[in-house]
Design goal:
Layout lengths: L2 H11 L9 E5 L8 E4 L5 E4 L6 H13 L7 E3 L5 H4 L2 H7 L5 E3 L14 H24 L1 E3 L5 E2 L5 E7 L2 E2 L34 E6 L2 E5 L5 H4 L14 E3 L11 H7 L3 E4 L11 H6 L6 E6 L15 E3 L9 E5 L5 E5 L5 E4 L5
Parallel strand pairs: 3-4, 4-5, 5-6, 11-12, 12-13, 13-14, 14-15
Antiparallel strand pairs: 1-2, 1-16, 2-3, 7-8, 8-9, 8-10, 10-11, 16-17, 17-18
Helix pairs in contact: 2-4
The chain binds zinc ion.
Zinc ion binds next to α3.
């Protein structure tokens, strides 16, 4: 056998060392809107929300799709129809093919003010126009209205719908359901700003082996409480995408304390979300190891923002960087700041 042939055969029979298949979340910088690209261990993808109806949001999503090595988005989950989530799906679809759309159903406009206000009428008309365009594309690509208890069929991971259309699961997820002692305090429940669409948000739990991620989109504190009081129907999670971009109206300590994540991620903008009063609540959560932010929160101070390595876009010009979370099925996960490559690995094994 010639040396060259032997070498060629050696290459052919060499064991293929495949990287462990991971469940990946890219929290995209859409300037305070929401957009998270999820790539399952089976290689299927789902976009949660599409940011603002601006070219810049579409550009950032397309960048993330390329970074993830994808050529299409298999599913789109639109948590609700507020302007910072509904994005511009027709424009996105012209750049990258998108598959089946999941959402909570119909648009719920903000209640009219007591005295007629032309600004309200103008913004209502614009919201209906956006929804009309969205409705056309969801009809074109295929569309399902989800209900609590449904699963989104992203291959390789369980995606459990726990909230949708202001309805919530009534039975605990597997392994959950213990009484929640934190329900004795009724935290922020009285001071919410009831945005009609916020509280229609589709909320999901991703379950991949021992790894769990909770994402309730813009569900406000009062209704988040329904998921954990008197019994914690969610159980504990590894990572938590903080409600309402970290705006204080989304912060229910009974929820956060009960699910007690190792890591919280805030999809905030420099001037939206990551409210300073949110910080001490997250920081006081038993077992929390780190808080990651898409932006430095300009409303806060160094004391109410994480260290720079945990912020994708620090104070100053927007760099449009992401936070990537990559999870293994043994519960280990790594979070990476795409600005500087800083990453930290978190081990499972907490009660
Ligand atoms: Zn929002």
């Amino acid at each position: 056998m010639g040396v060259l042939l032997a070498a060629a055969l050696a290459v052919l029979v060499a064991p293929v060392v495949e990287a462990a298949k991971t469940l990946d979340f890219y929290t995209i910088d859409v300037e305070g809107g929401k957009s998270v690209l999820v790539v399952s261990p089976a290689g299927e993808s789902m976009l949660i929300d599409a940011g603002w109806p601006r070219a810049a949001s579409v550009d950032r999503i397309v960048d993330a799709v390329k970074d993830a090595g994808l050529t299409k988005i298999d599913y789109v989950l639109v948590s609700h129809f507020d302007i910072d989530h509904i994005g511009d799906l027709p424009r996105l679809a012209s750049r990258v093919p998108i598959g089946h759309v999941f959402d909570h159903g119909e648009f719920h406009p903000a209640p009219a003010p007591a005295t007629p206000d032309p600004r309200y009428t103008a913004s209502l008309n614009a919201a209906w126009e956006r929804f009309k365009q969205y409705d056309a594309i969801r009809t074109q690509v295929g569309h399902t209205v989800v209900k609590p208890g449904d699963k989104i069929p992203l291959k390789g991971v369980d995606v459990e719908v726990i909230a949708a259309g202001n309805q919530f699961i009534r039975k605990p997820l597997k392994g959950a359901g213990a009484p929640n002692p934190l329900c004795v305090t009724n935290s922020q429940a009285a001071v919410i700003d009831r945005d009609a669409e916020d509280n229609q948000s589709v909320g999901v739990v991703f379950i991949f082996g021992k790894f769990r991620m909770l994402d309730l989109a813009d569900l406000e504190a009062h209704f988040s409480r329904d998921l954990v009081c008197p019994n914690n129907l969610i159980g504990t999670v590894s990572a938590y995408h903080v409600n309402v971009h970290g705006q204080f109206k989304g912060i229910a300590p009974e929820l956060i304390g009960a699910v007690h994540p190792q890591v919280a991620i805030m999809g905030n903008g420099a001037r939206k979300g990551a409210d300073p009063p949110t910080w001490p609540v997250l920081r006081a959560t038993p077992g929390i190891e780190d808080i990651w932010q898409v932006h430095y929160s300009a409303a806060g101070t160094k004391e109410t923002n994480p260290p720079a390595d945990f912020i994708a876009n620090p104070d100053g010009p927007d760099e449009f960087k992401m936070i990537k979370l990559s999870a293994q099925n043994d519960g280990t996960f790594t979070v990476t700041n795409t600005r500087n490559g800083f990453s930290k690995t978190y081990k499972p094994g907490r009660p």
